[in-house]
Design brief:
Elements (H helix, E strand, L loop, with lengths): L3 E4 L6 H12 L2 E4 H11 L2 H12 L5 H12 L7 E4 L5 H13 L6 E6 L2 H9 L1 E4 L5 E3 L19 E2 L6 H15 L2 H7 L3 E5 L4 H12 L4
Parallel strand pairs: 1-3, 1-4, 2-3, 4-8
Antiparallel strand pairs: 5-6, 5-7
Helix pairs in contact: 2-3, 4-5, 6-7
The structure holds BIS(adenosine)-5'-pentaphosphate (AP5) and magnesium ion.
């Protein structure tokens, strides 16, 4: 089973592509951002610790996110995992290697979504999701087919993330450049990095990723 990391700055399309891979290939999306948002919504001890840090756009501690991934990894054992938003620091990359190694598993690809920062602010500030099923949309790039009605489940309730404002996005970008980008050389040295053009249309990015997973690119 293939295990892949989707790496890229906020708004690069990690969640969009991970959800598609899960739907089309039966792989399991492991998004630390989604796990943390669930913890915040449920008011768990992890959620209480993470809430303000996330609202500021800073990174939650390596120990917390590595533990979250460790708890979910076995569920993805025979389907393959898509790591979405993890690892985000060198320390997390090392933690992932240990977690996989303990289970006799390895990483197959680190797929870097290469994008332009100004575009990302537009993507993030226009983003919304279905409050019932979580399907992701964008005001201009990916509107619902019928206004205010979820394509997937028909719900008319939608939500926006509290960290999706321009100021917080700038902090999230700075965190990415300072702490996450430096893991690229680590994975490059292992020969795992494959870069795709994240500025292309959603279906086009999907095709680039499929070609890598199918070994035809
Ligand atoms: P997280 O939830 O991971 O947020 P992020 O990395 O900032 O990334 P996003 O979810 O904003 O973007 P995405 O790449 O998933 O893009 P999407 O597909 O939605 O993390 C949130 C916070 O949690 C962090 O700031 C941190 O505090 C904490 N955290 C999480 N993981 C952590 C970790 N490992 N360590 C420490 N802290 C952690 O797309 C964006 C929009 O663009 C959508 O509207 C979509 O429809 C649209 N779109 C997507 N692709 C395209 C395309 N090709 N063309 C046009 N529009 C597109
Ligand atoms: Mg995401």
């Amino acid at each position: 089973m293939m295990n892949i990391v989707l790496l890229g700055p906020p708004g690069a399309g990690k969640g969009t592509q991970a959800a598609r891979l899960q739907a089309q290939r039966g792989m399991i999306q492991l998004s630390t951002g989604d796990m943390l948002r669930e913890a915040v919504a449920a008011g768990t001890p992890v959620g209480l610790k993470a809430k303000e840090v996330m609202a500021r756009g800073e990174l939650v501690s390596d120990a917390i996110v590595s533990a979250l991934i460790g708890e979910r990894l076995d569920a993805a054992a025979d389907k393959g995992a898509i790591f979405d938003g993890f690892p985000r620091t060198k320390h997390q990359a090392e933690a992932l290697e240990i977690l996989l190694g303990e289970r006799g598993r390895t990483l197959d690809h680190v797929i870097e979504l290469v994008v332009d920062e100004d575009e990302l602010v537009k993507r993030i500030t226009g983003r919304f999701t279905c409050a019932r099923c979580g399907a992701g949309y964008h005001d201009t790039f990916r509107p619902t087919k019928v206004p205010n009605t979820c394509d997937a489940c028909g719900s008319t309730e939608f939500k926006r993330r509290p960290d999706d404002n321009e100021e917080t996005v700038r902090t999230r970008m700075a965190e990415y450049r300072a702490k996450t980008e430096p893991i690229l050389p680590y994975y490059n040295a292992k020969g795992l990095v494959r870069s795709v053009d994240g500025m292309a249309a959603v279906d086009d990015v999907a095709a680039q990723i499929d070609a890598i997973l199918d070994g035809s690119a």
